[in-house]
Amino acid sequence: MNNDVMIQVTNLKKEFRKTIKEPGLKGSFKALFKPEYETVKAVDDISFDVKRGEIIGFIGPNGAGKSTVIKMLTGILTPTSGECRIDGKIPTENRKDYVKEIGVVFGQRTQLWWDLALRETYMVLKEIYEIPEEDYNERMAFLNEVLELDDFITSPVRTLSLGQRMRADIAASLLHNPKVLFLDEPTIGLDVVVKDNIRKAIQKISEESGTTVILTTHDLEDIELLCKRIVMIDKGKKVFDGELSELRRRYGQMRELGFELKNSQDFSKLSYKEDFSFSDDDLSVEQSGSNIKVRFNSDVVTVENMLSYTLSRVHVKDINVKDADIEEIIRRLYLGGGEQDETTASHL
Amino acid sequence: MLKYLRLHKIFIKQYLKKLMEYKVDFLLGAIGFLLEQAVQIFCLGIIFSTIPALCYAKDGVVLDSWSFNEVLFIYGFSLIPKGIDHLFFDNLWSLGYWLVDRGDFDKYLTRPINPWFYVLCEKFCVDAMGEIIVGVALIIYSTLSMPADVSGAINWWRVLPVIAVMPFAIMIFTSVKTGTAAIAFWTKRSGHITHMCYMTNDFAKYPAKIYNGFIKTAITYILPFALTAYYPAIFILRGEAVWSLPVTVGVSVLLFIISQFIWKKGVSAYESAGS
Question: Is the pTM for the entire model greater than 0.90?
Answer without folding.
Answer: no
